[in-house]
């Protein structure tokens, strides 16, 4: 790829409203007479304070890449990082191999001579890169340089997949799709299953708005510990004035609900569920209102809905889907 020199274009997409979650840990649960005694809830914000010292520069080539493959692989890579410790570092991160989206590869690497890249920089960079491509609506081979306080700290490479043996082979995922159901073994002993629930009278939603919500949500889910358990229903989005899409989730466990035993809807479970939803929407080209349930090892742990905020005056015309 013949790319020009880096030019100083700054992507400043840091509109981060505050969303509150009540969270508790699974490891501190105690059992009394068949019921769950929950510890005091630690009210934690999913808001990540924007730091203006972080920015990206981007360079594009003229070689087109597959849009859906780019978005899904980028989203899955971001989600993989989101389930790790927020303050940890990585040496190299490559996008997963997905049978249905094989045409794009994405790699994140620290800038030499640095040997590691903070995960939060990789997550911020991936989100900004994907939102930049969505805003341009022109998906091409790209390089994004990550800067922290004017120092180059890492690079994101987005390119067509080629038959090149990587030094760190990407992880293969076997996503099983059957009609309205998807499942993937994100952990060896607890496969996660998503079942789509059609909504009567569902209206189309601009795919760009849905992807904005998905990437913004995944960024916020990266901040709390992956093993934390949301104990109340919550909503992620809308995040930007130009996008009205949101995801609402209802954990089906807690002190006032019938099922008080694990498995539970951990933060990491939500990350994985969104990964499967991204696959389903792209495979079916279905960008509209729908409900879904989340099961872990065949145990129902949560339900949710993807929709958008609509005004009475907006009408159906403003919600026409574009792909």
Strand order of the largest sheet: 14-15-16-20-21-19-18
Q: Per the principal axes of the C-alpha atoms, what is the gross shape?
A: globular
What multimeric state do the chains show? single chain
Summarize the helix and strand pattern as letters.
Answer: EEEEEHEEEEEHEEEEEEHEEEHEE
Q: Whole-Å distance between the termini?
A: 27 Å
The assigned structural class equals: alpha+beta
How many helices? The count is 4
Number of strands: 21
Give the proportion of residues in helices. Answer: 10-25%
Radius of gyration: 20 Å
**Relative strand content:** 25-35%
The largest sheet, given as strand count, sense and whether it forms a barrel, is:
7 strands, antiparallel
Identify low-pLDDT runs: 1-46, 164-169, 314-323
pLDDT average, as an integer? 78
Structure overview:
- The chain has 323 residues and is of the alpha+beta class.
- A hairpin with a 2-residue loop joins β20 and β21.
- It is globular and about 55 Å long.
- The N terminus and C terminus are likely disordered.
